[in-house]
Amino acid sequence: MGTGTGPVPISMADDIARARELLEHATSVAVLTGAGISAESGIPTFRDALTGLWEKFRPEELATPEAFEANPKLVWDWYAWRREKVVHAVPNAGHRALVAIERGCREREADFTLVTQNVDGLHRAAGSRRVVELHGNIRRVKCFDNHHAIESWQETADEVPTCPRCGSLLRPDVVWFGEALPPEALAAALAAARTCDVFLCVGTSTVVEPAASLPYIALEGGARVIEVNPQPTPLTGSASVSLRGAAGEMLPLLA
Fold this sequence. Notes:
- With 255 residues, the chain is α/β, with parallel strands linked by helices.
- 36% of the residues lie in helices and 18% in strands.
- It has nine helices and nine strands.
- The chain has helices at 10-25, 35-39, 65-70, 72-87, 93-107, 122-126, 183-195, 214-220, 247-254, and strands at 28-33, 111-116, 131-133, 136-143, 149-150, 170-174, 198-202, 224-229, 241-244.
- A six-stranded parallel β-sheet has the order 3-2-1-7-8-9, sandwiched between helices. Strands 5-4-6 form a three-stranded antiparallel β-sheet.
- Helix 5 runs parallel beside helix 9.
- It is elongated, with a radius of gyration of 19 Å.
C-alpha cells in the first residue's frame, strides 16, 4: 500500500521493521486511535470545531447535559453542523491500513480490537469490523430522557426533533462532559488492553482519561506498545517503538 511519501530514513526504517515484526507475531492486537487520524480526513478536533459561528462558545455551553437542558436547539444545531462535516468525510490511508492489519490478524486467527476516541464513524466506514467507540458516534442519535436509539429523524429549522417512542428531545449519541463512558464499550476496551500482547496507539495525546490509561494497562500486562504520532507524548518514553509521523504515512508501512 503506497503512501506517496519519500524514502524512509534508515533509523525509522529499523523502527518500522521492528513494529511490523511485533504485529506479525502478535496473538492479540489492541489499537487505540484519537483525533489525529481523523484530522487527516479533514475532520476538525472538538476544540478546532469551536470556530466561525461557534468561536464565542465554551465547550461547557455545547457539550454537557446541562447545556442541552438550558438550550437544546443551540446544542442540536452545533452537532448537526459537525455531523454534516463528518458525513462528507472519507476514510484516509491510516483508516484503510488498520483494516488491513485487522484482516491479517483474522487470517492467522489472532485477536484484534480497535478502540477509538473518535465519534466520526470513519473506522467502520473504512471496513474495520471489531470497533469499540468509547465516546459514541455523532452519526447516531438517541433520546435525552430514555436513551432510545433512533435510526432516522426529520430535521426542522425551528425545533429539536423528538423521539417517536416517548416524545423526549433527541440528542447526539456521544459522550458529553460529565457523562460516564458506555459501560460495555469501556469494559471491552479494558479487556482488550489487559489481554493483548501488542498495543498500537495512533494519533492520540494520551492525556484524556480513561482512554489514556489503556496503553499503560497493556504495558503492565507485558504487552509491547507501538506509538504512531507526529509529536512526542507522555507515552513515548514507555513505548517499545515510537514512530514520528502521521497515521496516513506510518500505518500503511505497517500493514
